[in-house]
Amino acid sequence: NAGVTQTPKFQVLKTGQSMTLQCAQDMNHNSMYWYRQDPGMGLRLIYYSASEGTTDKGEVPNGYNVSRLNKREFSLRLESAAPSQTSVYFCASRGTGYNQPQHFGDGTRLSIL
Amino acid sequence: AQSVTQLDSQVPVFEEAPVELRCNYSSSVSVYLFWYVQYPNQGLQLLLKYLSGSTLVESINGFEAEFNKSQTSFHLRKPSVHISDTAEYFCAVSDQGDDKIIFGKGTRLHILP
CB-based contact (8 Å) between A10 and chain B? Predict the structure, then answer.
């Protein structure tokens, strides 16, 4: 069972470079999410997609864009990376129903120099 | 808006001693509650969940949590911790009508030998 798969696992970028983080889930979930995790800050929601074709901003959307390519895939793009975007990024998916938990990928560790 | 408070950012405890990790949420008519565990360099994994029914829920590795509606709490307990329980623990809440799950900032559990 693959669950939620994130690629790449690690990446180092220079300031100003662009990059797309990929996420795919094989559980036929409608909802998908992108978070960033920083020490002492917990998880902060960047963007989410409640269904194919829709996306909404979360708590910290500035500097990011997302694409819900199809039901399986939800990508996160940094157009011009900044050192403040150094973080661990997690993708999650969730089945239909407010009593459903989220399922997380293993994360992408991104460093911006 | 829903919020989740984890009162302790770090909890040190000796091996084989009991532990309680505290979680409080803002009141709501109908909520679903979750505890997630994050082992070092991994994503979040669902530990246990409260949806309805018995207020005491258990996980397969000896943790339990009790839903207390009057105190709006969902504290996590284990009667005897093991070194393998070293991890960060996140409490999370889902509301009816909200696609997002709200996470606390996490509690880091340190097991002392």
Answer: no
